[in-house]
């Protein structure tokens, strides 16, 4: 009898479903390939690089891209390809730290704020309002500068403008779940609030956060490169991609390859995260999935 | 809740937010370690004794406790005095008055470009869902939001300035042209008022590339939101009802779908202004556009703390006011928002 039931109703596995959804979606495959290369470069880039990223005079300065210097050489005769490879780990670290810290902190704040409610919720929401009153990049720029214009300062600045998004997202999820019967039942059973929050409410409101985190990974890299470009982030000779574009800008007339290749790296990675975020959102949103099914 | 009450509540939130913002940026710039006076004295290479140093601190109120400095600052701000820059020794409000119109002009033209492109693209994309044109529009939107704006600007400059030579690379007007008489500060308006047509066309020429690039960075956002909200509305029961009672498709889309799909698109306009102001910082830096974004970056590099606080507050006021207007407009259009 039990066996029969299993054959009648095969168990649903979200992970397998996700893989199947990705397989029929060429952009998603493309984004995963890019991200795989990106992580690989981030972890092993400096080992793969043909030259040291800061070694001057490995070639004649301002040389065109060639087989020997794939992305050409810069004004000091450094190999641009090696510099782009060495920058991978910097951007990977920025993305991981910003999304990790902003996501964790923001989610916790949102959970507490939404669950407890009252004046605590009200004050937390007003604090997020203050952070949201200035466009993100401007706010991050001011914070990063006041902390001394470095990669870490940029990471802190971007984290401080991004946590509010998670707090609001999780909070609205919590408020939507809070009134439902199963939560009332858990409360009536005398479960500890932290158990209710983490075992019951969080699992039901984290999907939107996952999508947000995917987009934010790309956004963090984009913002950090912008901050470095105006001088509030990475400083020379650090091969952060935005800083590479900035330093190559003045030679653009004689050597377009110096700013173009690092910028292309930023574009590729951010694009991949955005496609992945779209794919995840379409997949995790049951309403959209339903309409996709109807289409077939 | 009636609309008057809603507006009142939204206004009080705005005032609260602006007070919080002044406090936050002030503490951020002045509360951190580092003595602006000492920095200035060492950077300027001024051969000064301790007496001059203390006199300087006393003159600019730098020896007062933080909270007193803050209260002085807010008190002056309310009276319209944004303070004097310790670096340039000039009243900061003069700088902002000169630079702000340049930013608004650039952002406004970009905004128009983004709206005129983004909304129709989103509509076409939704109505031709899953066709090749939908895929193409979505790809372009994705490119727009994923591209570093400063990188796109460099590519465009290589093509249109270095190779084709058909656009200027910087500034609001050619350096050998007469600067329009300052009436509103917006070159496009001032040149029309004074009938200075050469100046008008030259200013338009200078605006083209930066506003295209700035606008392109947010076109995708607008197209995506428009597409999503139309698709959401189009599957509603009342749309099916409208179709099944035999209304023409044109009427169904125009009356039933568009009106309801417009609300999320209007809501996103506030965010769009934020994107434009953020992007303006980078665009102005590249095109040497004399606006507040470039002024912010310059002040930051000069460690001109008061100027940074002032320009941040100005950008914050512009952005949060835009958001407030959007909130109120949406509340007018959709009574459910007023709860």
3D architecture notes:
The complex is a heterodimer of chains A (296) and B (339). Chain A has one domain (34-68, 87-295): MetI-like (MetI-like fold, Orthogonal Bundle), CATH 1.10.3720. Chain A contains 13 helices and no strands. Chain A has helices at residues 2-8, 14-23, 26-48, 80-116, 118-131, 136-146, 151-178, 181-188, 193-205, 207-229, 241-248, 257-284, 286-295. In chain A, helix 3 (26-48) crosses helix 4, helix 4 runs antiparallel to helix 5 (118-131) and helix 6 (136-146) packs across helix 7. With 339 residues, chain B is mainly alpha-helical. In chain B, 75% of the residues lie in helices and 0% in strands. Chain B contains 13 helices and no strands. Classes of the chains: A mainly alpha (296), B mainly alpha (339). Chains A and B meet through helix 5, helix 6, helix 10, helix 11 and helix 12 of A and helix 1, helix 6, helix 7, helix 11 and helix 12 of B.
Q: What are the key terms here?
A:
heterodimer, A: 296 residues, mainly alpha, MetI-like fold, 13 helices, elongated, disordered N terminus, disordered C terminus, B: 339 residues, 75% helix, 0% strand
